[in-house]
């Protein structure tokens, strides 16, 4: 189900109406992109996770219908394993990205998702930082 139905039209309409909440949210998302790039370059997984959570909150302010009970329950069940999560992809509905706290949390999260009967496909990948061995894992699924 596409959750971000006509989100661009909604955002542009609110922008043209000079919606102050929307404008401040867009500015903050631009700031978060820069801060997120720095966190990624510095290998700061916790900071990157915090940025993802704030970006997800801002996306929900921009479009309150960008989520549903399935996504909300999924994120809630994964919360103890993750330092960050959000929907990503075209229109916000392509994938859910979960940033695991560490390798062990990524493995536990995978087990949780595989036995949950949620019908999700799990993709694992590593984030390699300069000088790291790639032990920081994320679980990426749809």
From TrEMBL:
One of its GO terms (biological process) is GDP-L-fucose salvage. It comes from the Eukaryota. Keywords: Kinase, Transferase. The keyword Kinase applies. This is GHMP kinase C-terminal domain-containing protein. GO terms for molecular function: fucokinase activity. Transmembrane segments: none annotated. Residues 38-104 form the GHMP kinase C-terminal domain. InterPro entries: GHMP_Kinase-Related (IPR052203), GHMP_kinase_C_dom (IPR013750), GHMP_kinase_C_sf (IPR036554). The keyword Transferase applies.
